């Protein structure tokens, strides 16, 4: 029985153990690996957004086996087809190498192999690709018009349509004191992990095993899909994910490059490696956002939100990616529009459309930044119409602590929290009253204005199988495994199926073990990212790692601890229930035995410990009790200054009050929040993938795709609430994505607040100086509101 708090366990501000190797340059990434005979791969990619692919011709004199086309690959690997259980969903095979048609700039058409990357690129450049251009479906308007079809056998360009209604929205509209309709757009973004994607593949003939090294967030899923697409047994495939320089969702889909390199490795006598360059990353890694909303909201005179109607269109690009499909964002957005509010009347329609753009996939926050932007901007405009302070409007409508657990209008179970308190604390952190006083005191002749904005949200984390099934995924996800073993020196090795790529999981999972065994986390090795060494797991995405893998780790640690106490019972001659694990030893009333001594005794001389079965390890698979996820929440508060002459926006103050349940490591949670907010500021103010009318991407380098830096990210004030979930181990909730969700909403509200006197509304991200300036030029108090577009 535990009698004292663990010094290094749950709640400790333990520095990340991963930092030591990364800050000293001792990490090992795909590009760092050296293997005998390794040759490099360069892909030939379509330069046309839409066209008939007539032929692909290898250059004269190219060495045999140095250039591969779809015709060469077809006998070795099937194309990927992401399927869905949604009614009317349209699937389209995603070629490993294009054949018949090209459907986006960056689509792989062929590959070249040479001794160096430069030589491979030269060879790839000599491949002749004959394409007959076709009209491009360049945006969601063109997709809905269906003047041209991305997939010839479809009647239109819609992957799927979903809809739903709860309550009585028509009565809500009749009863409303005010109803408003607004339109919002969140432009397409690149994901931009620091390390681009990369793959190495070779066939180990001694082990009869295909070995694939991949910068992936989901090694077990990649292994399974390689085996299925190549038609070989999964036991003959091993996937290893080494150190990773971030993923943010771009590395949790199955890509053609992984399948292609794995397939050709079966026919080669040497390893092959492909490392994505930055141009490729901008045009061939999955992209994100590209959301379009029409929101109608109805409210009573006292600010009560009576009903919401949402029409959502998401541009999913040319193909559905496996396993998420092109409907992932739209279905998530529809579910999250109600946010943290007691909304009971809701109607929605979503359309996920195909276009001649790079396929969309997961990106930090998945759909919730767009949904939050739409509902939170609308809520501020309602508050303005009703002359209510926006933060008070939020508190009026929020789910209360006494309502928990609360089933939302979209059937999500909000497990715990005090949403109102997060808003109130955010107003204090930001100094709301002081900024309001400064705002009122500003000289009307000044060419600058300041505004205050808020953004509140619920973040669905650690989704279970039922949740994924409800959104149409043919593959449901919701379990994680962990294996914990103690060796003869008493140290511990934890093996988990997730993949840490910046979350600090090697530290936090060791803290969970420390919570049970009361050993320093440095005595716990955490293995991840190798399908040969870890129990099967679904991977790292959807803010699920600590809830799922942490739950599995706790289960394995408790099972092993129970056995250790039984061994201690024999060695100390005391009942196991009267013993405790403390300070790296088993303690009883008659003495103690250290874990090293206990393990050595048990493993070397098991006959000294009769009645205890062999083995010092335990495996545990975890699934949370409630499968709609654990719900983190937060309120972001922003003060923004707008230059009326240039449209430039400067963030003067930023605060967040968040609640991710029980905090395992506050240092890591705060780092996640700050990093997420930086990305959210990019969404709000800077980042946009621009395509022209021919489907050509115009922002393919950091010269024309802007990222936030030190001058754009202000000091972040962080406040914590901690209401444990009743449904998860330790009461944990996910914390990986919340920082990125609300910045566009809070910043958009702050800018709109600053420019209310000019009747300017923010309706589109990124909120660039040009968009703000144009809105100011076209709006005045006597005209219809100018929308920053």
Q: What portion of residues is helical?
A: 25-40%
Tertiary shape:
globular
Class of secondary structure makeup: alpha+beta
Total count of strands: 31
**Mean of residue pLDDT values:** 96
Uncertain segments are none
What separation lies between the terminal Cα atoms? Answer: 62 Å
Annotation field: number of helices = 21
Q: What strand line-up does the widest sheet have?
A: 3-5-1-12-9-10-11
Strand content: 15-25%
Q: Compute the gyration radius: what is it?
A: 27 Å
Largest sheet: 7 strands, mixed
What is the compact description of this entry?
Helix content is 28%, strand content 24%. By secondary structure, the protein is of the alpha+beta class.
Supply database-style keywords.
789 residues; alpha+beta; 7-stranded mixed beta sheet; 6-stranded mixed beta sheet
Structure description:
This protein has 789 residues and is an alpha+beta fold. The protein contains 21 helices and 31 strands. It has a seven-stranded mixed sheet. β14 (305-315), α9 (328-336) and β15 form a beta-alpha-beta unit. α6 (219-230) crosses α7 (256-265), α10 (368-386) runs parallel beside α20 and α11 runs antiparallel to α12. The longest helix is centred in the C-terminal third of the chain and has 28 residues, at 545-572. The relative contact order is 0.13. The mean pLDDT is 96.
């Amino acid at each position: 029985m535990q009698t004292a708090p663990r010094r290094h366990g749950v709640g400790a501000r333990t520095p990340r153990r991963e930092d030591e190797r990364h800050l000293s340059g001792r990490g090992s990434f795909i590009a760092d690996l050296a293997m005998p005979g390794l040759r490099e791969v360069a892909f030939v990619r379509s330069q046309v957004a839409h066209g008939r692919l007539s032929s692909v011709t290898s250059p004269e004199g190219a060495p045999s086996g140095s250039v591969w086309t779809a015709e060469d690959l077809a006998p070795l690997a099937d194309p990927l087809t992401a399927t869905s259980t949604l009614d009317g969903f349209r699937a389209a095979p995603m070629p490993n190498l294009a054949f018949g048609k090209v459907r986006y700039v960056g689509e792989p058409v062929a590959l070249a192999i040479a001794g160096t990357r430069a030589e491979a690129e030269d060879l790839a450049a000599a491949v002749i690709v004959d394409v007959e251009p076709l009209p491009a479906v360049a945006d969601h308007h063109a997709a809905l018009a269906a003047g041209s079809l991305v997939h010839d056998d479809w009647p239109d360009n819609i992957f799927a349509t979903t809809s739903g209604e709860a309550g009585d929205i028509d009565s809500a509209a009749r009863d409303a004191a005010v109803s408003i309709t607004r339109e919002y757009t969140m432009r397409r973004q690149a994901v931009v992990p620091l390390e681009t994607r990369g793959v190495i593949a070779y066939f180990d003939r001694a082990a009869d095993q295909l070995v694939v090294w991949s910068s992936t967030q989901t090694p077990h899923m990649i292994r399974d899909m390689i085996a299925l697409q190549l038609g070989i047994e999964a036991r003959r495939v091993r996937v290893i994910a080494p150190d990773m320089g971030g993923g943010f969702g771009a590395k949790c889909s199955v890509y053609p490059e992984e399948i292609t390199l794995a397939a050709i490795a079966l026919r080669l006598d040497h390893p092959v490696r492909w490392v994505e360059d930055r141009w490729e990353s901008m045009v061939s890694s999955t992209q994100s956002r590209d959301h379009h909303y029409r929101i109608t909201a109805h409210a009573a005179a006292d600010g009560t939100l009576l009903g919401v109607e949402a029409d959502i269109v998401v541009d999913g690009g040319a193909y559905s990616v496996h396993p998420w499909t092109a409907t992932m964002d739209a279905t998530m957005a529809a579910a999250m529009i109600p946010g943290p509010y007691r909304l009971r009347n809701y109607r929605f329609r979503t359309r996920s459309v195909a276009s001649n753009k790079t396929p969309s996939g997961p990106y930090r926050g998945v759909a919730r930044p767009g949904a939050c932007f739409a509902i939170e901007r609308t809520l501020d405009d309602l508050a303005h119409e009703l002359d209510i302070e926006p933060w008070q409007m939020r508190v009026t409508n929020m789910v209360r602590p006494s309502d928990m657990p609360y089933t939302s209008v979209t059937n999500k179970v909000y497990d715990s929290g005090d949403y109102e308190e997060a808003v109130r604390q955010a107003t204090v952190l930001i100094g709301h009253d002081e900024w309001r006083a400064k705002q009122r005191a500003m000289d009307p002749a000044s060419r600058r204005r300041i505004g205050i904005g808020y953004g509140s949200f619920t973040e669905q984390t650690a989704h279970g199988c039922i949740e994924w099934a409800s959104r149409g995924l043919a593959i449901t996800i919701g379990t994680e495994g962990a294996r914990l073993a103690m060796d003869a020196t008493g140290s511990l090795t934890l093996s988990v199926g997730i993949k840490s790529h910046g979350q600090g999981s090697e530290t936090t999972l060791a803290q969970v073990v420390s919570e049970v065994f009361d050993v320093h986390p440095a005595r716990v090795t955490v293995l991840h990212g190798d399908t040969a060494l870890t129990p099967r797991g679904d991977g790292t995405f959807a803010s699920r790692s600590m809830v799922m893998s942490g739950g599995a780790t706790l289960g394995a640690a408790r099972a092993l601890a129970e056995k250790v106490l039984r061994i201690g019972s024999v060695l100390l001659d005391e009942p196991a229930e009267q013993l405790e694990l403390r300070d790296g030893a088993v303690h009883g009333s008659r003495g103690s035995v250290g874990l090293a001594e206990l393990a050595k005794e048990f493993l070397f001389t098991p006959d000294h410990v009769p009645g205890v079965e062999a083995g010092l390890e335990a495996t545990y698979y975890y699934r949370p009790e409630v499968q709609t996820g654990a719900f983190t929440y937060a309120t972001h508060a922003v003060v923004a200054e707008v230059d009326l002459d240039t449209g430039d926006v400067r963030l003067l103050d930023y605060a967040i009050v968040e609640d991710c349940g029980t905090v395992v490591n506050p240092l890591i949670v705060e780092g996640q929040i700050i990093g997420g907010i930086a990305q959210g500021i990019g969404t709000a103010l800077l980042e946009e993938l621009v395509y022209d009318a021919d489907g050509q991407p115009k922002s393919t380098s950091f010269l024309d795709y802007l990222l936030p830096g030190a001058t754009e990210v202000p000091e972040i004030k962080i406040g914590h609430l901690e209401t444990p979930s009743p449904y998860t181990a330790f009461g944990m909730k996910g914390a990986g994505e919340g920082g990125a969700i609300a910045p566009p909403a809070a910043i958009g509200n702050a800018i709109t607040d600053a420019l209310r006197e000019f009747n300017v509304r923010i309706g589109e991200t990124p909120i660039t100086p040009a968009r703000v300036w144009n809105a100011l030029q076209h709006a005045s108090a006597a005209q219809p509101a100018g929308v920053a577009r």
